[in-house]
Amino acid sequence: MAGQFQQHGAQVRRSPAVMTDNENTKSRRRGIYLLPNLLTTGALFAGFYSIVAAIDGNFLGAAWGIYIAMFLDGLDGRVARMTSTESDFGKEFDSLADMVSFGVAPAIVTYQWGVVRLSEFGPLWGRLGWLAAFLYTVAAGLRLARFNTSGASDKLSFQGLPSPPAAAGVAAMVWGSVEYEIGGLTALVAGVAITALAGLAMMSNFRYPSFKQIDLSRRVPFGNLMFVLGVLILVALNPPVVIFSMFFVYTTSAPLLWCWRELRRRRTSLKESG
């Protein structure tokens, strides 16, 4: 009996140490990983800077803020996977940062660039302009919410236009119009319409390639490297025009591919029925 009592007492005396270890483990789990979330914070700052620059009329700075946010947004996830520092907190924080950088910032840029000047042609134009900007913002929010809840079963494609390419296209459009001094009612209406169409593309069910299957650590043919260098040279020669062209091709590729597949399917069905 005495031996059992001593053994039970030893177990009781050891239990505080065990509780202390569990508490330490829980306290460590409550923390956040610094490096990937620091990159996400940088992307959020770039998106916020884009908004401030647009309000100040610095549309070139606003465009660069969106592009820097895109770069950091593509980097934080890769860093988290490479360093095994993925977390639910990081995913939610990244989604909120994307909403600011690729949902709110492009809409504010469009508003400050086009909608304010559209109001000079009449109140109706102004209302249509800010409604288009709001459509883009709510589309980006719905697109991100759908992505977060879909489970991402298909890693080769996205459902709907991703918000970063949409933001890049809007920023390039505004940047090019300012650099080449493109104005007038027609140009402003076209710019606002492109913003609204980008929003509709984000809410669509078209499948867009994700390019996640590209493995940067594998060997590739030398021609692929030359192609990438050629694209970079073109971007350096005329950034707004080339970036907007890439946005246009990427945005229209999914609807055109869907139309081609539908026509092909209908032709096949007609041949089988005939």
Description:
It contains nine helices and two strands; from the N terminus they run H-H-H-H-H-E-H-H-E-H-H. The model is unreliable at 5-28 (pLDDT under 50). It starts with a helix and ends with a helix. The longest helix is centred in the last third of the chain and has 35 residues, at 239-273. The chain has one domain (34-209, 219-273): CDP-alcohol phosphotransferase transmembrane (TM) domain (Four Helix Bundle (Hemerythrin (Met), subunit A)). Strands 1-2 form a two-stranded antiparallel ribbon. It has 274 residues and is mainly α.
The percentage of residues in β strands lies in under 5%
CATH superfamily: CDP-alcohol phosphotransferase transmembrane (TM) domain
Count of extended strands: 2
Q: Main sheet, how many strands, which sense, barrel?
A: 2 strands, antiparallel
Q: Characterize the overall form.
A: globular
Rg is 25 Å
Structural class computed from helices and strand pairing: mainly alpha
In the residues, how many domains can be counted? 1
Order of SSEs: HHHHHEHHEHH
